[in-house]
Amino acid sequence: MKINEQEPFENGANPKVEQLGKYKVDHNGEFMTTNQGTKINDDQNSLKAGDRGPSLLEDFIFREKMTHFDHERIPERIVHARGSAAHGEFQLYKPMGKYTKAKFLNDTSIKTPVFVRFSTVQGSRGSTDLARDIRGFAVKFYTQEGNYDLVGNNTPVFFIQDAMKFPDLVHAVKPEPHNEIPQAASAHDTFWDFISLMPEAMHNIMWLMSDRAIPRTLRAMEGFGIHTFRFINDEGKSHFVKFHWKPLQGVLGLAWDEAQRLAGKDTDFHRRDLWEAIENGMYPEWELGVQIVPQEDEHKFPFDLLDPTKMIPEEMVPVEIIGKMTLNRNPDNFFAETEQVAFHPGHVVPGIDFTNDPLLQGRLFSYTDTQLSRLGGPNFHEIPINRAIPDVTNNQRDGIHRMQIPKGKVSYHPNSMGQGCPFQAMIKEGGFASFEERIDASKIRKRSQSFFDHFSQATLFYNSMTDHEKRHIQNAFSFELGKVQLVPIRQRMVDMLLEVDEDLAKKVADHLGLVPKKLPQPITGSIPADGNPDDHHSLKVKLPITEAPSVSMANKLPTNIKARRIAILTADGVDDDAFTRVKKQLCEMDAMVQIIAPRHGFVTTKSGEQYPVDDSLLTAASVVFDALYVAGGESVNTLLEHAGALHFVAEAYKHCKPIGADANGADLIKKVVPELKDAEDGVITNGDLDEFIGAIMLHRFWDREMNPLPA
Ligand code: HDD
């Protein structure tokens, strides 16, 4: 066993790294053994009666190897099966003692180890990263007081209001059960059938149809805890809190056509991107923000804080930035860490507590339950990645795969034979005590009337979009509903859109050859058998704001080009100065620069210098990159004749990416875009690198979509 050498903390005090180190193995220089430690002499041939004879049951080496192999797989997660994870640390900027007693939110000197898993929701473990889908954003904080899991998504709201509907939602969105089609896509009948009958989903659907659901990279996504939680301070006072993760890399999306092409060119693109950024030392960072609402303000909003389909717009309650998370180490083993990690919104520490959000309450049951079948029993907390930092001491015993060896006779409490150990901890000793909320109510299956505004925030979201963001939402609905086979489902959806925005409904309906109609009220599907339809009319509340600029990605562009992927397209004969200048400047700004040439090996500059090629025009694709630079000189003559180079430029242009070139390089761009305007936004043909870098920060020049190339 070996302690991990990659030590991310200066003072060397990362307790999680040390703990994981105890379980790591390195086979370097070791003999091969069976699982019982017996050295193996022949790992090539099974034991047989004669060299052409039957195999023998006696062969314990073969049997052990094969049995283990036969059981290598575990059930994938029912949702969020496809994921990628990384280790890191969280450091607080300012103590939050006024609101919470959680130690890791009070001491700015502590670096709390974290493990973060990003995921898609719909697809299987091996599905594409590039699906239009919500992304999971699950953070496990290994605090001194035990594990705290913030199990969020990259949207601030959810599809449904009550956990009772979660199995229905998942059954509807997953591949259809008769033929297991489609994989990693919501564009199919059962999903939209369900959604068209569930008006409460409309707000999250707007986020799903926006570019938030096709992130350019996992590093450029916001994260949200979604539910309203509670902070509890030392005096036992409660404040409501919503959690936000704000990426320092900006918030960036893909073009939909690009996402679909990228799914083929590099289906692991998001996983690879996260991995490479960390391997290259370009650690992604997120700031943690909180929106705090005093207990007494619970009913001051025109929506219910317990309703997970509603956000608190930042324009109404500002987000206070309180700390920073840095992801700085890739896992050593995908299965042991990323696959076996078990998150749970119910893993909390003193100072953080729940509210009565009915979605959250249901989650508190589901997550442990799912691990029992996924990880095979109740001891999954002993798997290294799931272990808490403090010692786990209680009277729980036995079960499949138990690792602890508890000594003594006593496994009950109270006891005298074990001197009363393990002790209960008083609140002042750090014992968790649930917030004492006064409840005076009848037992009833009912939803609060305050949950019945399903459209105001969907409209607010749409109103807050820029023109290109609106266009992308219209196109996304048109695409998704265009894939739906049953016309009545399409019709119900465009009718639903009429409640959100008339122009949106008309544009989508037009694409589908339909006319949106006023919805009958109430919408069927979400009403209990004996429910009074009059109780189920969607209410529309008046929000104090008509736009929330904070939800628009256009307002969240990065201020640097760190870890952005830039292709320098070139060939033999490239001008030395043009080539080295651009490469040097981009690398100095921490961009991930790759040299793409017609073939692998080296490019030889005009003066005879040789530079290694990172990828060839055959194996590379423009969709992998954020920007493209064509370095000039004689190399351009080769590129002008190369179909792959022309396609590379055309695709980058079509996907609205920044393109830079010097005078010769511009010839290539002009050949692809014959009607290139002199000063077209995002196409810099004068070799001005500062202008090119400025364009990379702007990410995309979406106006080009208005005059698309037929690429
Ligand atoms: Fe969930 C996994 C996020 C509602 C039941 N969920 C899971 C993961 C994330 C979320 C990020 C993957 C964790 C990982 O990487 O291992 N889920 C959410 C959010 C929700 C939400 C942000 C709403 C605010 N989930 C939700 C409900 C239920 C579940 C209402 C059931 C009542 N979720 C599960 C699950 C999963 C899961 C079936 C599958 C694998 C797992 O838990 O560990 O139990």
From TrEMBL:
Its EC number is 1.11.1.6. CDD domains: catalase_clade_2 (cd08155), GATase1_catalase (cd03132). It comes from the Bacteria. It is an enzyme of class 1 (oxidoreductase). Keywords: Heme, Hydrogen peroxide, Iron, Metal-binding, Oxidoreductase, Peroxidase. SMART domains: Catalase. Belongs to the catalase family. HPII subfamily. Decomposes hydrogen peroxide into water and oxygen; serves to protect cells from the toxic effects of hydrogen peroxide. This is Catalase. It comes from Kaistella yananensis.
